[in-house]
Design brief:
This protein is α/β, with parallel strands linked by helices. It is built from 10 helices and 7 strands. Strands 3-2-1-4-5-7-6 form a 7-stranded mixed beta sheet, with helices on both faces. Strand 1 (66-70), helix 5 (76-81) and strand 2 form a beta-alpha-beta unit. The longest helix has 14 residues, at 18-31. It is globular, with a radius of gyration of 16 Å. It starts with a helix and ends in a 9-residue tail after the last strand.
């Protein structure tokens, strides 16, 4: 597939800035706290049990679905969310090591697994997925509204995203840590997230937990407009 075909997934008026993308790739490849580290347990993965429970409820049965997980990490989160064996599973992450680990983790859950390294916005094939997850992803992207639109284009069924709320002390610690890595943390209010969904032509269910906003959007494939 040539670059011209891939570009049909892109939304006019915005693009990925190579400098932040390079910093994010370096961060997730070399600096992101490992799952069992103290920093991960006290700051980055706090509330994960609740996060898994909510994602399972929103995703529902996944048997026979074509699933995309953007920012899959080591795959442990997705392994706990799936209820049933997907027909295909596409894993996307900036870290090659995380992708390799996720692929091994998910082998017991799906026979047809594809991996996409780097920026999913330009690397994914021209297709759509029944279920798209981007949990703990948009908060790292400066142009997260554009990324939200890209995720919607890839979705022919259900899209599930999360964003950190404003004013949560845990996220102040994350913001300091990430600033030291050259990464800016994005946080949102309910109105901010609702407006972003509306601007992307999306209407979904919003759920606030102590540490995150979740947005669940159902999309009909006929409603998707490709540029």
């Amino acid at each position: 597939m040539d670059e011209g075909q891939i570009k049909r997934h892109r939304i006019p008026g915005s693009s990925t800035d190579p400098a932040p993308l390079s910093r994010l790739t370096h961060y997730f490849s070399h600096r992101y706290p490992k799952r069992k580290s103290r920093l991960s347990g006290t700051v980055f993965r706090v509330g994960e049990a609740e996060r898994i429970q909510i994602a399972r409820a929103f995703c529902g049965a996944t048997t026979g679905l074509h699933v995309l997980d953007v920012g899959c990490g080591d795959g442990e989160f997705l392994a706990n969310v799936l209820e049933g064996r997907p027909a295909t599973l596409t894993l996307s992450d900036l870290s090659m090591d995380s992708l390799a680990t996720a692929r091994e983790t998910m082998r017991a859950h799906c026979a047809d697994i594809a991996t996409v390294a780097g920026d999913f916005q330009s690397a994914l094939p021209e297709r759509q997925f029944d279920l798209v997850l981007a949990i703990g992803v948009l908060d790292y992207w400066q142009d997260w509204r554009h990324m939200l639109g890209q995720l919607a284009v890839l979705t022919s069924g259900r899209l599930l995203i999360s964003m950190p709320p404003e004013g949560v002390p845990r996220h102040w610690l994350r913001r300091i840590w990430l600033a030291c890595q050259g990464v800016r943390l994005q946080t949102v209010s309910r109105d901010h997230l609702h407006l972003a969904l509306a601007e992307a032509g999306l209407d979904g269910v919003l759920l606030r937990t102590r540490y995150e906003w979740f947005a669940c959007v159902d999309l009909d494939p006929k409603e998707v407009r490709r540029e």
